[in-house]
Each structure stands twice: as structure tokens, then as C-alpha cells.
Amino acid sequence: MDSQKVAELEYEALQAEKRDKLNGRMQIWSLFFGLVSGAGLVSVQAGAVSSLIALYPFLAMCLARYAGHSERVLDQVKGRLLGVERACGFAGYEQVNKLNARQRRAGSQLKAFRDAVLVSQVAATALVVLRMPALWAGIAIALGEVTLMLLTWYWLSD
């Protein structure tokens, strides 16, 4: 097998990986909306069941970590695609995208997801504090959840 054929096969495999990661974004958003819906349902329940809303920031943080990892892998795949395009000497999508990078901002999907997760975590934490019978217990839980929010912000920041 010659090196040109190997480069073509690698390029095709990288394009498939990129397509899978881009399609995975919709799944991540679907999971997020399902998680928010479930948290909303739990929050309107009466009694001790409503305190399960305190788990929401942890679950959202786990989803954020997965989303951040997925986006970083996508960036690596894009970088490798760019390298293959340059090595083979043709102007593919990644090279054209790199040339036009000054005209638009990349990473907006991850920033939008970060903001949505953080806003929902703040809302869930506020509900926990408001529903706690003892204010000191609500504040203690809120401090723990602020730590989770900081980790979420870290994992979803560039």
C-alpha cells in the first residue's frame, strides 16, 4: 500500500470520527434537557422526595465533563485532519475553516452548553436552599454545590 492510499484511508476514518462527535452534540443536549426535565419533576414533589434536587448539580457536572472531553477529542481530530490535508497538499474543509477563523468565533457550542448547565445548576441550588427547613443546612449544601459548579465551569472552558 502506498502512502497516498494510507493518507486517504486515515482521512476517511478521521472524517467519520468527526461526524460521530458532531452528531454526539445533539445527544448531549438531549441528555441535558432530559436531566433538567427530571430535576423539574422532582423539585415540585412534596416531602423529602423534593430534596433529591440536590443531586442535580452533580449529575449535570458529570454530563459537562463528558461534553468537555468530547469537544477536546473533536479538536484533536480536526487538528489531525488539518495535518493530513496539508501533508497531501489539498485545500480541504479544515484548511478553509482555518483561513476563515478570523471572521467567526469557534467554540460557541461548548460555551452555550456551559452557560445552560451553570444556569440550571444555580436554579437547582436555589431550590435546595429555599426548601431546606434549616437555613444553615441549605447554605452548607449550597457551598458544596458551588464547588460542583466551579468544576463544571472548568471542564467546559477553553
Describe this entry's structure for a reader.
The protein is an all-alpha fold and 158 residues long. It has one domain (3-155). 80% of the residues lie in helices and 0% in strands. The chain contains five helices and no strands. Helix 1 (3-43) runs antiparallel to helix 2 (56-88), helix 1 runs parallel beside helix 4 (108-131) and helix 2 (56-88) runs parallel beside helix 5. The longest helix is centred in the N-terminal third of the chain and has 41 residues, at 3-43. The chain starts with a helix and ends with a helix. The model has no long low-confidence stretch (mean pLDDT 83).
Beta-strand content estimate: under 5%
Number of helices: 5
Compute the CA-based radius of gyration: 21 Å
- Give the quaternary arrangement of the chains: single chain
Q: Which H/E pattern describes the elements?
A: HHHHH
Name its key features.
158 residues, mainly alpha, elongated
Short description:
This protein has helices at residues 3-43, 56-88, 93-99, 108-131, 135-155. With 158 residues, it is mainly α. The protein has one domain (3-155).
What's the arrangement of secondary structure elements?
Blueprint: H1 3-43, H2 56-88, H3 93-99, H4 108-131, H5 135-155
Helix pairs in contact: 1-2, 1-4, 2-4, 2-5, 4-5
